[in-house]
C-alpha cells in the first residue's frame, strides 16, 4: 500500500509543481487579508497586544488551510468525472491508496502554503517566543486540522455533480474564523454571537495556537481543540470511506 500510495502521491504532486499557481492562489487570499487587517484595520482593533499580526496569524493559518483543502475536492471530482478513478480501482492496488494519495497531497501542499504565509508574516513583524516543543505542538495541531478538513473535502469530491458543488462546501469553513477569536477577542461581540464564537472549534484551536506561540503555556483548552480535530477527522473519514465503497459497487 505504501509504495502504491507514494506513486499516486507523486502523480498529484507533479501536477501541482507543473502548475505552482495553485499554491500561490491559495496563499494570496490569506496574505491579502493579513495585509488589510494589519495595515488598514489593525489600528482600530483593540486586542490587548502590541503587534496585531501576532494576534492575527493563527486565524489566518486556519483560513489558509480551509482554502487549500478545496483543491482536494477539485482534484477528486476531476478524477471521478474523467474516469481516471474508475481506471485506478481496476488496477492491482489497494483501493484506499487512491484516497490516501489525495489526502497526503493536501497535507503537503497546504504545508507549503502555510510556510509562504508565515514567511510573509515574518516580514510584517511577526515574532514568537515559543520554544521547539511549542512549535512542534503548533505543527501537530495544524496537521490534525488539515487532515480533518481534507477528509471532509473528500466527501463532496466523490459525490458532487458539478465543479461548483465540489468546492462550495469550503466557503462556510473559510467564513467560520470570522465568527471566532481569530480577528478580535470574543469579549467584544454581542452576547449571542459571543456564545457561538466561544464554543465553536475554530476559537478553541486559534486560542491554543496563540497560547503556544506567545504565552508558552496552555490550559485544558488544548485537549478540547485536539478532540474537535480528531473527532471531525474520524467522522469524516468514516463517511468518506462509506461513500467510496458504495461507489465501487
UniProtKB/TrEMBL annotation:
It is a multi-pass membrane protein. The chain crosses the membrane at residues 21-41, 53-77, 98-126, 132-154, 166-184, 222-244. Its main location: membrane. Keywords: Cell membrane, Membrane, Transmembrane, Transmembrane helix, Transport. Coiled coil: none annotated. It is found in: Cell membrane; Membrane. It comes from the Bacteria. Residues 21-247 form the ABC transmembrane type-2 domain. Belongs to the ABC-2 integral membrane protein family. PANTHER family: NODULATION PROTEIN J. This is Transport permease protein.
Amino acid at each position: 500500500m505504501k509504495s502504491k500510495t507514494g506513486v499516486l502521491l507523486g502523480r498529484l504532486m507533479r501536477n501541482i509543481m507543473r502548475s505552482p499557481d495553485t499554491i500561490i492562489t491559495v496563499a494570496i487570499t490569506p496574505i491579502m487579508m493579513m495585509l488589510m487587517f494589519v495595515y488598514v484595520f489593525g489600528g482600530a482593533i483593540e486586542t490587548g497586544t502590541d503587534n496585531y499580526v501576532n494576534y492575527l496569524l493563527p486565524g489566518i493559518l486556519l483560513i489558509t488551510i480551509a482554502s487549500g483543502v478545496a483543491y482536494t475536492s477539485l482534484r477528486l471530482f476531476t478524477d471521478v468525472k474523467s474516469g481516471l478513478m474508475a481506471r485506478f480501482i481496476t488496477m492491482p492496488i489497494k483501493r484506499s491508496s487512491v484516497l490516501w494519495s489525495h489526502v497526503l497531497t493536501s497535507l503537503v501542499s497546504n504545508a507549503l502554503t502555510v510556510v509562504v504565509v508565515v514567511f510573509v508574516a515574518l516580514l510584517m513583524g511577526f515574532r514568537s517566543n515559543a520554544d521547539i516543543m511549542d512549535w512542534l505542538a503548533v505543527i501537530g495541531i495544524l496537521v490534525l486540522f488539515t487532515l480533518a478538513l481534507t477528509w471532509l473535502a473528500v466527501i463532496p469530491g466523490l459525490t458532487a455533480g458539478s465543479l461548483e458543488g465540489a468546492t462550495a462546501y469550503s466557503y462556510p469553513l473559510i467564513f467560520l474564523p470570522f465568527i471566532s477569536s481569530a480577528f478580535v477577542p470574543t469579549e467584544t461581540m454581542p452576547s449571542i454571537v459571543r456564545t457561538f464564537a466561544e464554543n465553536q472549534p475554530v476559537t478553541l484551536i486559534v486560542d491554543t495556537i496563540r497560547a503556544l506561540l506567545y504565552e508558552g503555556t496552555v490550559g485544558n483548552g488544548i485537549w478540547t481543540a485536539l478532540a474537535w480535530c480528531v473527532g471531525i477527522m474520524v467522522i469524516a473519514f468514516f463517511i468518506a470511506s462509506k461513500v467510496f465503497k458504495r461507489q465501487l459497487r
